[in-house]
Structures are given as C-alpha cells and as structure tokens.
Write a structure and sequence with these properties.
With 750 residues, this protein is an alpha+beta fold. The strands form six sheets. An eight-stranded mixed β-barrel has the order 19-20-22-23-24-25-26-27, surrounded by four helices. Strands 2-1-5-4-3 form a five-stranded antiparallel sheet, with helices on both faces. The protein is elongated and about 145 Å long. 27% of the residues are buried.
Length: 750
Amino acid sequence: MTSLLAVSIWKSVTAHRQQIDQRITSAENVLIEYLKAKEDLLLTASKVLTADFGFKQAVATRDRATISSVLENHSSRINASLMILSDLNGKVISSSNRQLNVDSSIIENLTTEKQNLNKTQLMLLDNKLYQLIVLPVQAPRTIAYSIIGFQIDQAFVNELKRLMAIEVSFLSQDNLIISSLQHPDKAHSKHFKETDNTWLLFERKIYENKLIVFTNAQGNEYTAQLSVDLTPSYTELDKLVVITLFISLFIIAITTVAFSIIAIRLTKPLYQLTRLTRDFAQGNYEHKEMTSVGSLEVSRVYDSFIKMGERIEKRESEINYQAKHDSLTDVFNRSTLLDLLSKTISNHDNTTYSSLLVMAINVRHFKRINDSLGSGIGDGALKAIAQRAKNIYQDKTLMIGRFSGTEFCLVIKLSHGESSEDLVEHFLNQLRAPLQVNNLWLNLNYRIGICTFPEQSNSAKEIIRRTTIALEAARAENTTIRAYKEGEDEAYLERLSLLEELRETMKRDNGELFMVYQPKLNLENGQIEKVESLIRWIKTDGQFVSPELFIHLAEQSGLIIKLTHWVIDTVLKQQQEWLAKNIRLKVAINISAQDISHPDFIDYVFQKISQYSIDPNLITLEITERDIMTNEDLVVSRLKHLKKTGIQISVDDYGIGQSSLGKLKQLPIDELKIDKAFILELDTSEKDQYIVKSTIELSHQLGLSVVAEGVENKASLDMLKSMKCNHVQGYFISRPIKSADLLIWLDDYE
C-alpha cells in the first residue's frame, strides 16, 4: 500500500512538472514568433521606405523637410517607435524621435555590419531597449541607411504576458531593463528565486524560470527571462496529494481492521507452528498434538511439519554418523578419532589401564591389487583389513580409524607392565594372515608406526603426528615396525617451518634464493657452450640451506611447481641479459615429474620464452629417468610437444635408476647425462670405465649426446675424451658460480 501511495504521488508530481515544462516551451515559442512577426513588419516597412523614389531623391538632395515628412508618415503607418536616416558615416540626417539622444558611433556600428542588414537585432538606446532593422538606401549605389525599430516598452511586455500567460522580463548583463511585473525593482532576480517551505517542510520554488539569450551584431547580449508562477499549480497539486493520502489512509485503516480479525484467528495456531520450528532448530524433534483449533490448512501444515521433523531427525542421524565414520570401512574418520582420543586422554585416571598404544598401519603395495584385480576387490580388502584389525584385540581396542586410502590408526589400552613391543608383534602376525575377499585369498604386507601415551606425549594431535612420523620413517628405512624416537617430531616441525620459510622467501624474492651456473666443456672443440642452472638458498643470517633438502620438501608439499616457475623465469631473464652482451650459452634447467605433469607447465614455458625473446634451442630441460617413469605416457607426450619447438630434453642421473638404453631409445630425448656415481672414481675403477664407455658408445649409436657430471681430476677428463664423451662438467672444470663470476671465468678461460 505504501508503494502504491508513493507511486501515485510520484506520478502526480511528474505530471505537474511536465505541465510546467510544456508552459515554458510554449511561452518560448510564442516569444520567438512574436519577435519574428515584428521583424517581418519592420522589414516590409523598411523595404517600402527605401524603395520610394521621392524619398530617394530627397535623401540624395538632403531635402530635410521631405525626409522628415516621409519618416513621420511611415512611422505612424506601422506604429514604429523609431525611424532614423543616417549618412554613410553614421551621422543622423533625420530622426522621428528628436528626444532620443543617439550616439553617432552606435549608428556607425549598426550600418557598417553589412552581414546584419535585413535582420532585426536588439539594442539599448538611451537606456531603452529597441528591436531595430537596418536597410540601405540605394540610388543605385548606397547613399544612406534607414533604421526602423520598435521599443520594447511596458505595453510590449504586457502584450507578451497576455499571449504567454507568464511573466516576461528583459535584462542586460543582469540589469533589469523592463518587466511585466507591476512593481519591478532592484531585487528583481531575488524575487524570482524565492522559495516556499510550507509544504511538508520541503522547499519548493515559487517561480520556474527560462532564460533566452539574444546577441546583436556588436556582441552585446540581451536576455529574455520567462517566469512561470507555480503557486496556482501547487494549489492543485496539493489538493491532489491530500486526496490521494486520504484515500490511501482510508484503505489502510480498512485493511488493518480486516487483517487484525484474521490474525486473531491465526495467532495461536501459528504460535504453535513457530514453537515447533524453534524446537526443530534446536534439535528437539519431540512433538505434541495441536491444542488450538485452527483452519484446515493450518492443521495440515502442522501435520506436515511433524512428518518433516521425523524425516529430518532420521536424516540428521545418518549424516551425523557419516560425518564421523569412513564411508567404505565404517570405522572412524581422522577428525572423529582425534576428538575421541583427546577426550580419552583428558579423562585418563591410570586405574583401568596404564597407557595407550597408538598404531598407524599402512598396507604396502596396495595399488597392485587395484591395478590387477580391480577396485571392487581393493575395496573389499580394505573392509576386511579394518574388521580384522578391530577384532585382533577386541577387548583392548578403544577405537579404530581410517586416515587415508591405505592408512589406518588403532588405539589400544596397555595394562600395567604390558610390553608394547610384544603386543605389536602379535598384532602384526595376526594381521598378516591370508585374507579372503570374494573367494580370493590375498597375502598382504604392512608397515606399522607406533607411539605411546603418556610416555611419549600427552596431546592427542601430537601423538597422532608422531605416530605418522614413525610410519614415514618405517617407509623410508624399509622396516616393518618402527617406534617413534625422541627428537623426530622437532625435526619434522623444523622441516615444516623450513618449508614455510621457503614459501615466504619466494614471495619476497629478496635475493635469498638465487641461481648459480656450472659450465659444461665440449670435449670435441674445447669450448664452453653450455651451463647447468642450479638453485641456491642462503638466508639473510648467512645460513646455507642444502638444495637437496628444500627441493625434496618442495616436492613433498607440492611447492615444487612454484619453485620451478621461479627458476624458469630467473634463468630466462638471465639469458636475455647474456644475449644483450652477445653471450650465447645453452642453459639446462632441472624439472621434476610434478612439473611436467602439471597442466600449465608447457604454457608457462612458452609464455616466458616469448616474454624474454629466447631461442628455444638455447634451453635444455633435464629430467631424471625416475621422474619419466612416474607417469610415462603423460610425461612422454609432453616432452614430445616441447621437443618439437626446439627445446632439448636431457635424461639426468642416468645409471642409478631402473631404465635401460633399450627403454630410453623410445623416449623423445636428445641427451644422456651419466650420473657422477660412475665418474667420481673413473680413473681408478675399471668397472666404472666399462660401464661409462659402453654407455657412451650405445648412446651415440642411438643418436644421443652424452654429458658426464662429477669430473674432478684430469685423468678422468682424459679418459672421457678418449671415450668420445661429448660434454663434461665437474669441479675440475668449475664449481657452480653466479652469473657475474661466470662472465669473468669465461673471459679467463678463453
């Protein structure tokens, strides 16, 4: 209702505004047309006067009596206020208004503006405003000028007011010349700006004004101000608004009464519905029958609410169970087990049991089951493992949970004097027994990490973390059972801290991370054509962080993607600077399996190549054979794509993985890099010599270039040269050095 009232009032005000605008526009048109009619009358009279032969003869002979008579006759014929005849120099020959003091310079300005002849213009003469027209008297050349005009006097503006039904005033430079107001004074402009604030405390203009500017040939501006008195229209508008308000209030009153009657009948039933929904929101799904008698519709709604509450209670119970349990094995999930363990530790009183044994259990090589027997068998095996782990020490087991795909956690009570080692050994023997899944018998192996409460921690989160650390240690050490050792948690947290430091250092890019370059010697021509880029990290306090450590942490956490992007950007930018100095070096960049598998890696490489205008042939990407085999199909496909653009692909650390040259021949690679394990003692180890020589020969037969790393003495260098190895690198040639030192080293080497 309020919206309808507002719209109605807005429509009324808008219509009122449109009416005012229409009046102003109409008045403007009337004024223009009125002045045009006067102009036509003046033009006709001027042409008749200047075409009269007797008048021309009188002008030519300067017969003042005749000229004066003719001017008076024409003036009376058209009721002109002013008729003047001037010579070509602007001097007045005769005037119908002898009382008018006309400056000869004004007449001269009027008559010399040839382009304004035959057109009327406004001009202030002797403080009076005239509409004038100037025509030449020609016999046949111009011998004089006739000036005819009407004075814009009180009768003139009164006539305009009658025609336009609005006030009209003429001004010059904000000075009032004449107005249709009865008593115009110096406060004329202030009068038309007055406002009325009696209408609902809002301020309204009394007059709506429109200014029309006229400019004469001399550049003087005269303004016609059209002013509409808004008071009468406000009266009508106010009446309309009052009527609208009255009708609206009347409708509101009737509606209020009607709604009050209806509300009384609905209040009690709706209150019961409100109380019911409030109980549901608080988890209270018990309900009572409806006590108040309401309409049939309300009763149906109440019954629907009751049924809805029952369904919500059931679904909430299911969701709550699912939120706390693993959907496949039906044991607790990580967050639930952690919460229950925390409560158990808080309530521990050392009377029923002395301590708790927490075991993290990992199923080894479980992927083989999924790959060979299918995910259905794999899921069934996980269910059976969870059930068996729960049943082995059924009386002692407090809780069991599944943390990830193949990792479980078990919490067992330890009695006073009971050995955790014996208990875990017995548990593992029971767990390793053959497992039947869908008529198949599976033999599975496990790793177990253990930690005890309260001997090794009093915190649930800490115990779980330390148990996981022990499991990771078992995986790294390739052992079956591994207990947590003091200090390992601190080392783990230190690695996490170091990882966070690395992330922040990359953001700041303050020079702690930087690149060094190790030259590669071409054994065929003795030139340095290639370098390998290596990342280094020295903290602001001077502490050196091993690349093997922080790169390994970055690979484990997924930060390696951003780190490799930083390396690529830094190296290509450095290459651009070298090229500007006419130094053309091929640079090898190390990448990981995570890098090449990332969907944005290839686009990022191409983007940086374009950004720094680097020839792709100057870039070598080094990837280990282990990383290639991680996801062989995808990695090979992307390496082929990179190779097509001219980027060279090198296999790093060859010889320490599981690949053979027969396997490598199928890969899109250009270069083989023999691991330093075979080079460091090459001059003294006959076996290393056989391996390296055969590797170089077979690589050349496959069309691959060979790089040997780890050259640390001349004897090894000479052997590699005799074996026709293509490039070598190592401390004997140069340590990895910064770019500025590399340029100095290159000058000295040359």
